[in-house]
Amino acid sequence: MEKMRPDFVLIDLDGTLIDSVPDLAYCVDEMMKRLDMPVRGEASVRNWVGNGVERLVQRALINAIDGEPDPELYARALPIFKELYAENTSQRSVVYPGVKEGLDWLKANDYRIGCVTNKAEAFTIPLLKDKGLYDYFEVVVSGDTCSKKKPDPEPLLYAAKQMGVAPDHALMIGDSKSDVKAARAAGFRIFCVPYGYNHGEDIRAYEPDVVIDSFADLPKYLKAKGEA
Ligand SMILES: O=C(O)COP(=O)(O)O
Ligand SMILES: [Mg+2]
Predict the structure, then answer these.
(1) Is any ligand 1 atom within 6 A of the Cβ of residue 142?
(2) Could you give all domains of the chain from N- to C-terminal order, each with its CATH number?
(3) 143 CA → ligand 1 middle, Å
(4) Atom of ligand 1 nearest to the CA of 119
(5) In 3D, which of 66, 29, 12 has the Cα closest to residue 197?
(6) What integer is the mean pLDDT of 94-120?
(7) Where does the record place the catalytic residues (predicted)?
(8) Could you tell me which residues are beta bridge partners of residue 163?
């Protein structure tokens, strides 16, 4: 593929920049214990992340990716999860290898970058700050910034508008089919990492433009400053 030079690079959070499942799984299991229900474990939680904390809590309660829990049980569970996650947002979470190197390369080569996530803002900002990533981004769009979350294109179009960039000059980097769908609907190009959370499916099945093994590989696909 010919190297590109997008005007804006918008990057997903969970499963792309940060492995946040260790904290999310800890909070899911603590919530389950407080509800006198069985714990679910990290492997299940890994398949349920990507559609926001509300959907994660619903999936944990029914122990399945599709379907709805009893509304009363859910109404009891959600505040418990939110309280736990507010205290356990980042300490077990890990920035993936190559991420800081890739972000430094983007900055050094004058790329403008943003972050888009389905995670609510109350958790997104502390997580990015705790991991030393917040200052890289000119715009951060969280799961509750717009009226709709990914796979809807609204958060991507909102970010592009904030930056004053045309969507067809923008690139999204993500890990899930929601990122691919949102990017296609918004008119962004889309790169994916293969190591994140795609509900147990191989992201290649969703045909992103490029699959990069790590952020350290970005210079293979993006033009450096001044590169013809
Ligand atoms: O599901 C979430 O809370 C966040 O997931 P995302 O950062 O991959 O959009
Ligand atoms: Mg993700």
Answers:
(1) no
(2) 8-19+93-220 (3.40.50.1000), 21-87 (1.10.150.240)
(3) 8
(4) 3
(5) 12
(6) 98
(7) 12 (nucleophile)
(8) none
